[in-house]
Amino acid sequence: MSKTSLALRNLRGFTIIMVVAFHSCIAYLGSQPLSALPFNEPPYGWLANPIIDSERWFGLDLFCAFQYVYLMHLMFLLSGLFVWPSLVRKGGRRFLYDRCLRLGAPFIFGVSLLMPLAYYPVYRVTAVEKSWSAFWFHWTALPFWPSGPMWFLWLLLALNIAVAALYVFAPRLIEFLGRLSAQVGEHPGRYALALITISALAYVPLAAVFQPWQWVRFGPFGFQPSFVLPYAVYFFAGVGVGAGGFARGLFAADGTLARQWVVWLAAAPAAFLVWIIPTALVVSGQGPGLRGLQVIADIGFAMSSTTSCFALVALFLRFAMRRPMLSNLSKNAYGIYLIHYVFVIWLQYVLLGTALFAIIKAAIVFLGTLTLSWITSAITSRIPLVEHLISGKTHELVRKL
């Protein structure tokens, strides 16, 4: 395994830890509503704040805010890295078949079975009749089907389909992205500036129309309209890096980005301040010229997303080594992502009313969720059907069937 592949595997394990940590803290944010939100009434705020605990700590707000600006961007970036090599190796038809099974089947399973199980305690918090049958009646009466974190799967599948279409009709476009990524390997700052510019152009106009927490939902398909284009930008950035050979160029283990890891680590919190300070002023209504300040905050968001992603990639490239725990986490990352939300919400629900500090509750939920999700993923991945879906070796499954 190349040093770059090792670094990316470790980064994938770290990323799933941050996903679990982010969701584990949401119930204990100081910015949470004062009380639990009605299950049946628009705008269905429980989708963003499933469990609301009376214990709060502002430090968790800062932690979640920092994860908020980069985490999903990084996931789309990493998801795009292996798309083009896979397409070239498999061809468009088999690639699409495998992706539909790997992403589409878990999406259907997650939305149909896991999300009702996850949201059942959310209903119980405010319900008079707390039985499962009563919950199911209210659940099916909703004007949409809540998908929770499963939204990532269908949007990722849509982006994969878009790349497959480019593979057939405009392959030179992806090849151009690959050459560009390879050529700027010695100048990661230039690439970062281009990525900031493009993502800002995609994000700022949408952010002027849609709030960051606003969602658009059609049945089980939900997305945040202000972020859908920036996510696509990062996904295609990953596709370009993969097409250019991610072990060389921008993501080379001995490249400039890896050598500049200290610079990028310093830039990440600085860029975060460029976003969080004007955002705090806008939210409090204290800043003069709030409209202009909001634009500055939106540009700062694009800056923070890019610098944080580059900082983490640089750090893991620089210190790429075999780490058994991260390796095993990476192996089970997909399974953990699929199941973790069930454990997060149920643990937060069980801890309601417990006299513990917010940070202690968040730690219990995080450690409990990560452990239970990890064990569940490791056990279920031994089932042949699950193993092949999670590993992506769906063509082997078809031959066996």
Overview of this protein structure:
The structure is a single chain. With 401 residues, this protein is mainly α. The chain has one domain (3-400). It is 72% helix and 1% strand. The protein contains 16 helices and two strands. It has a two-stranded antiparallel ribbon. Strand 1 (216-218) and strand 2 form a beta hairpin. Helix 1 (3-25) packs across helix 12 (290-318), helix 2 (58-80) packs across helix 9 and helix 3 (83-90) packs across helix 6 (151-169). Residues 394-401 have low confidence and may be disordered.
| Helix segment tally | 16
> What is the CA-based Rg, rounded?
21 Å
Give the helix level as a range of percent. Answer: over 70%
Poorly predicted spans = 394-401
Distance between the termini: 31 Å
Main beta-sheet annotation: 2 strands, antiparallel
Number of E-state strands: 2
Shape, please? globular
Which structural category fits the helices and strands?
mainly alpha
- The residue-averaged pLDDT reads 90
Query: How is the largest sheet built, in terms of strand order?
Result: 1-2
How many domains? The number is 1
Give, in order, the helices and strands.
Answer: HHHHHHHHEEHHHHHHHH
Our estimate of the beta-strand percent is under 5%
Write a brief structural summary.
This protein is mainly alpha-helical. The protein is built from 16 helices and two strands.
Give the SSE map.
Elements: H1 3-25, H2 58-80, H3 83-90, H4 92-126, H5 132-141, H6 151-169, H7 171-183, H8 188-207, E1 216-218, E2 221-223, H9 228-243, H10 256-259, H11 261-284, H12 290-318, H13 324-350, H14 358-380, H15 384-391, H16 394-400
Antiparallel strand pairs: 1-2
Helix pairs in contact: 1-2, 1-12, 1-13, 1-14, 2-9, 2-12, 3-4, 3-6, 4-5, 4-6, 4-13, 4-15, 6-7, 7-9, 8-9, 8-12, 11-12, 13-14
